[in-house]
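Continued from yesterday's entry.
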Amino acid sequence: MRFITILPSVFTTIALAAPFTIDTRADDNCTPISYTLTDYTLVTSPDSASVNFNLKSSFADGTGVEDAVQGGASCNASGAQLPNNNVCDVADRRLLFDLRGPQDQAYYQVTHTWTCNGATWISGTPVKVDPLICSFAGSTCTCTGGPMTFAPQNVRKICNSPSC
């Protein structure tokens, strides 16, 4: 019986000691809130392919963030077929993209790295450009898309030690 009378007072004490608001994690400032893709163009023909687009990252609060992609980055690739391991035009290989499907599906994996509060962060986001508006001139297909805004995925801090 004594256990039953003590238990409610213990729960009351714990509830009163708990904070009324939950502070956001300091890491929240380090996570981009969105990416915006613009000026997407894909051109394919029987013997060549090229893709061009711009990508820009946005943070709710840029405090402590060092990210060249915030100013926008130009991304392009070309070849007989679109290659993988494509580096966008931004310093230090901070933005990469790879195909996730056949080149005419406009489906990519975008890998973005940045620095925040002295740590390096990374996101890996699948992106399907949709809708595409395509036109044909002979055997050449030109598709355009965007602008489109999407949320980053798989955001995490890159850690080189057990303490982070």
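--- second protein ---
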Amino acid sequence: MTLLQNLPADDFKALKLTTPHTRLLPVKRAEDMGKLPTDPQVVYGKYTSRKRRVLQGVYLVAGTCLGVGFITGNALNHGGVMPLAWDIIWILFPWVFLLPLWRGYFRGWRSATRTQQKSAEDYAAFSQAALHVTGTVIDRILRVDRTNRAVVLVLLLHTQVPGRPMESLVVSEFAAGNPPLESESPQVGDTVIVWIDPHPGGSGEKIVQSNQAWSRRQERAAEQGATADPDLAE
């Protein structure tokens, strides 16, 4: 049983609540550790493109024309047998379903635009204010699928901001919602970089960067430093 598995459920939930919005961002190249990506989509996921939204609008226009044309055209009282109210009912009937679709489309467009602007502004503010510290993976729970991609990955980290006590972080979210491969997942004992907003009342955002090659370099450098300075080893 690992530390995370031994942790009572209430304590685990409480620990997660103290470290919300903590995302794991595996870094492909060791040289890029300690550098935040400039594009917020790398962290938050891809935005719905303008081209896709326009295409959705085109489909909606086509569906509206076909639906109104088919239902209204076939239901109108061409023979003049039924009263005028019958024609009015069938002219309005398709819009009972089409109006909510069009309303949802325009609301979704406005909402997506506002969300993109806000996330870009928030990430820019975080990037300017954030500082990075190293952390150590104390424990992890990992389950992978047939492609060796993580289905469940929970990390317990210990990290320390200068001037603050040691802090425990639970990482269970993936940057951009992309679960890493098993080979990209940090292992127990690995050193990672944690980006945080140090200001009180800040966003609370935390980004955990990992790269196993970089972590091994840190381990070798620490071992060489300890060998060169016996007092440090003590």
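Residues 50-124 form one domain. The radius of gyration is 27 Å. Will compare against the first tomorrow.
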